[in-house]
Design a protein that fits this description.
By secondary structure, this protein is of the alpha/beta class. The protein contains ten helices and 19 strands. It has three domains: 151 residues, GTP1/OBG domain (Spo0b-associated Gtp-binding Protein, Chain: A, Distorted Sandwich), CATH 2.70.210.12; 173 residues, P-loop containing nucleotide triphosphate hydrolases (Rossmann fold, 3-Layer(aba) Sandwich); 68 residues, GTP-binding protein OBG, C-terminal domain (GMP Synthetase, Chain A, domain 3), CATH 3.30.300. The longest helix has 15 residues.
Length: 433
């Protein structure tokens, strides 16, 4: 059974850590006060949390960037910067979060309240208090905060249609669907029919959203396996509210009340439970000449049968009467329980969780045409970003760290000569033998 996939790509950026501070105590009566620069605070994480009230990824269509706050910088008098608050982003149950480029799975969010840290905030840089040693009791050295993680992620949600549009072909279901819905999720092609159900995400005026599927015209006898067949009816089985679209103009030469009973008999023949679904009747094409007259006749017949049904007058083409239907539909969804789904395949679904493995190779060396050596690599760039180049001691420490990583040796092996220019990001220095 193929499923509908609602998919959206968003950018998340966790907060950077605050910078550490270089400061000294400057009090009366304290000769040569020691170091007093505090650490920076940690940047905010970006945490996704499941909210069972959400049904679709609609909200992410309008907001594709999520950025957590940075940690505060360290201050003098040994005061540490404050850590930033985490940013919580709500997602519907069943959301899968992947890396947009590599497809690596970050989280599979299922239960209400479940949380996953999708991007980690950077740790705060250490202030100069941390670098004091007996040999160097007054260090002029502090780190900048670590950058927060930034990622392009893809959210995927398998959606089931909450609401089904039923009715004969050409009663205006597709038009109705195209008018009320915006986003088109990706749709799996049904293997048993060339007709793919149209699917739309619908948002009501008060901000609730649901998934609406146009069930391609049920053909008399489908319950016996003619036409679209059982597979498709099984998809209808999942919906919790049915919108029964009836062409009130009778322009195709059919009688509206007969259409109503034919389709409902189909549902009954197939499975009695479908008749227990709340059903709203949409009297469509009400802008046509005979519609009003036919509607009066239709209501009379329904009254005679003793059935209680809600009828909404609509013209999909001129978009009249749609708001009332959608609002009523959203209300019904809230009060109708979910029907159990029997989908053998989805239990079996393989979920492989990849552990995030940092690269072992910490740097790459390239030579540019003008002879400059360019160093790149995650660990190296992070060191560079966390070094405060305003203080010579910090620069010296940086030099020791990159020597410790084996970069000097690697450059020498590649043929770097005394006085060659080496560049990291936008920082250039001379290679010294």
């Amino acid at each position: 059974m193929s499923m509908f996939l609602d998919q959206v790509t968003v950018n998340v950026k966790a907060g950077n850590g605050g910078d550490g501070m270089v400061a000294f105590r400057r009090e009366k009566y304290v000769p040569d006060g020691g170091p007093a620069g505090g650490d920076g605070g940690t940047g905010g994480n970006i945490i996704f949390i499941v909210d069972e009230g959400l049904r679709t990824l609609m909200d992410f269509r309008y907001n594709r960037h999520f950025k957590a706050k940075n940690g505060e910088n360290g201050m003098s008098k040994g005061m540490h910067g404050r850590g930033a608050k985490d940013l919580f982003v709500k997602v519907p149950p069943g959301t899968i979060v992947k890396n947009a480029e590599t497809g690596q799975l970050y989280a599979d969010l299922i239960n209400h309240g479940q949380e996953a840290v999708i991007a980690k905030g950077g740790r705060g840089g250490r202030g100069n208090i941390r670098f004091a040693t007996p040999r160097n009791p007054a260090p002029e050295i502090a780190e900048n905060g670590e950058p927060g993680e930034e990622k392009e992620i893809e959210l995927e949600l398998k959606v089931l249609a909450d609401v089904g549009l039923i009715g004969f072909p050409s009663v205006g279901k597709s038009t109705l669907l195209s008018v009320v819905s915006a986003a088109r999720p990706k749709i799996g092609a049904y293997h048993f029919t060339t007709i793919v159900p149209n699917l739309g995400m619908v948002e009501t005026e008060d901000g609730r959203s649901f998934v609406l599927a146009d069930m391609p015209g049920l053909i008399e006898g489908a319950s016996q396996g003619v036409g679209l067949g059982i597979e498709f009816l099984r998809h209808i089985e999942r919906t919790r509210v049915l919108l029964h679209v009836i062409d009130m103009s009778g322009i195709e030469g059919r009688v509206p009340i007969d259409d109503y009973y034919t389709i409902n008999n189909e549902l009954k023949e197939y499975d009695l439970k479908l008749r227990e679904r709340p059903q709203l009747v949409i009297a469509n094409k009400m802008d046509m000449p005979d519609s009003q007259k036919n509607l009066i006749e239709f209501k009379k017949k329904i009254e005679e049968s003793g059935e209680k049904i809600e009828i909404f007058e609509v013209s999909a083409i001129s978009q009249k009467g749609l708001t009332a239907v959608l609002t009523r539909t959203a209300d019904l969804l809230e009060s109708t329980p979910e029907f159990p789904l029997y989908d053998e395949e989805t239990h079996e679904e393989e979920r492989v969780l990849y552990k995030h493995t940092p690269s072992t190779d910490h740097f790459n060396i390239l030579r540019e045409p003008d002879g400059t050596w360019v160093l790149t690599g995650q660990k190296l760039e992070k060191l560079y970003k966390m070094t405060n180049f305003a203080h010579d001691e910090s620069v010296m420490r940086f030099a020791r760290q990159i020597r410790g990583m084996g970069i000097d040796e690697a450059l020498r092996n590649k043929g770097a000569k005394n006085g060659d220019i080496v560049r990291i990001d936008s920082f250039e220095f001379e290679f010294v033998e």
